[in-house]
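pasting C1 regulatory protein for the record, 483 residues
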Amino acid sequence: MAPSPDPHDDPRVNARTPQTPRRLTREPNVAFRQLRGARSPGEFAAAVRRAAREIGEQVACDARYIGRVENGEIRCPNYAYERVFRHMFPGLTLADLGFSARETVRGRGARPLSAAPLLHITPRPDHPRDDPPGQRVGPSSDNHHIHQNHEESDVLRRAFMTGSTATVAAVSLGLGPASAHPVQRVGEAEVSAVEEAVRRIRLLDDRHGADGLYQRAAQPLRTAYALLDASAARRSTQERLHTGAGELAISVGWLAHDSGRFGEARSHYAEALATARLAGDAGLEAHAFCNMSFLARDMGRPREAMRAAQAGERAAHPLGSPRLLSLLALREAGGWAGLGDRSACEESLKRAHSHFARGTSPADPEWMTFFVEAELEMLQAQCWSALGDWSRAARHAHRAATVQDPHFTRNLALYRAELADDLARAGAPAESAAAGQQVLDLLNQVQSTRIQAMLADTSRILAPHRASPEVAAFLERRAAVAV
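structre below
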């Protein structure tokens, strides 16, 4: 399953509460710093992400996380990071890596299972658990599995509860209006909680799609903006909170976008853009424009999509991230394709490839972990589809589905749905039906209005070919799923 944030990754040991009036001292993690060697924190973070992919994990590791480990702020990694670090440094224990034992960091008993986490998905009875490869648990392990899910998936609520006032805790749990009692002070725990909420939403979306997440994600967003109205202790804390709240607005906007709530998505993206400009955060501004471009394309506004992408490129140029520029060039290409301008689309695609070929960079934003070769191929497929070159679109969609990491179920289903649609329009009904069947195989794990709408379009195109056994089988199965 996708790694969850862990309570030991939050800095609550340093939070000021009525029961703990003094801050505990931090001890730098010298052992971990030595393991990093001559690599920069960004380079080492990239190595951690690569190692995670090798064992089927996903961790949102960046230079800031490495810094938090090395300065002693993270005394024990979560379970996903522990598995990755043990893979990177075989034979070393947590102690050898400079971490404290998990039970000494926790400092409390097990949490009652009846307390529901804020962003936890309970699988349906027919919804297989998404355990890590090689770690599928049997019935005898269910209690441990459930306990671990609860322990790892509710860091947002615990961070608010342990590191802030009762008012913020109430807001985070939806127990009262944000304005009832203004928060007097915002510190590290609150900001870290907002950042972890962003990561958690992205990870859950990768696994399950947007439909089941949107309503639950709205409350953390309201909490984050309530915190923006409170006074932060340091300027650096204020800046992180603005960025975190803006990224959270984009994440919630994407959930609305992917589940077909375009008006709500547009509002969330605009809120993120306003936050970025108030804070002078070019990275957040580029991200907001990137998503606004994508949304405009889906809303049938190609000129707006093109202009939003260009605005994003202007914001992104000083940031030094070729991959970000590549993605924005692809968004611009999508706008040109929607306008029917093949020449301008091809020019934008050429720039996208040129930027992509420069590889990853420590300056790449954390949210861009999804932008790999498979996504590059998918966005090209969408461009050629918009231009009516269905065969060329199908080739790129097939490539996207082939190279996509199978752990990212939602994207795999999306790419195969694009392939099915392109093949249907290209005059290959049997091949289209086969790709559609593969999408249906994944729908017990993914809830996405976008994917359902794509399958509906494909079904309409294939309907005249019902005489084909492959097509008939797909249409019958898809109709049963759609009921």
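Residues 300-365 form one domain.
Residues 1-24, 106-182 have pLDDT under 50 and may be disordered.
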